[in-house]
Amino acid sequence: MSGRIHIDLFTTLDGVAQAPGGPDEDTDGGFAFGGWQAPLMDETDGAQVDEGIQAMDALLLGRRTYDIFASYWPHHLDGPNADIARKFDAIPKYVASRGEPVLEWHHSHLLGGDLVAELAALRKRHREIHVIGSIRFARTLVAQGLFDQLNLWVYPIVLGSGKRLFTADGPPASLELLAAEPASKNGTVLLRYGWRGSVPATGDMGRDDPATELGP
């Protein structure tokens, strides 16, 4: 059975996914709201995130997120989040990068060459592969339908500016809602999506059957 690729992202209501974890995580563009997720988390979304982490047997990251993880998690193998740190430390980490970075975190591997072929090889090697954060890389995967499940934790906060998975100049895509789950007492919702296609259907509300597809 082919392995599955999950994309895990924390976003605001207006789609901002930049620097949820801390003030210094990503200040590109003068982003001033790093760590916006922390005050809104509780035991429900924490348990959902941990369930996904414990189920994975490989991490697939963009270069920037890899650098953030590599500078933090290997140094927190003991303490409050030791179970997460040890899981990340133990499993293979694959890094998508156009350059040739030095990957010092053990069990780290560079993905080069043809992305479709590389992902096909990962699916044969692993059962459950998770992309965490890695917004630019996640955009590529979604644009090309190179994923099985997109997991969006949507938090009840609006930031106005910041990096988004879905940008104003991004390509179209059609997604299928697989599940919608409450994720915290604060009103956070976990939305799970699958890929449907790159060309959304269109219709005409003035027709007897408004769902009749008019687009390609």
From TrEMBL:
It holds the Pfam family RibD_C. Residues 6-180 form the Bacterial bifunctional deaminase-reductase C-terminal domain. This is Deaminase. The lineage of its organism: Bacteria, Bacillati, Actinomycetota, Actinomycetes, Micrococcales. GO terms for molecular function: 5-amino-6-(5-phosphoribosylamino)uracil reductase activity. One of its GO terms (biological process) is riboflavin biosynthetic process. Gene3D superfamilies: Dihydrofolate Reductase, subunit A. It comes from the Bacteria. InterPro entries: DHFR-like_dom_sf (IPR024072), RibDG_C (IPR002734).
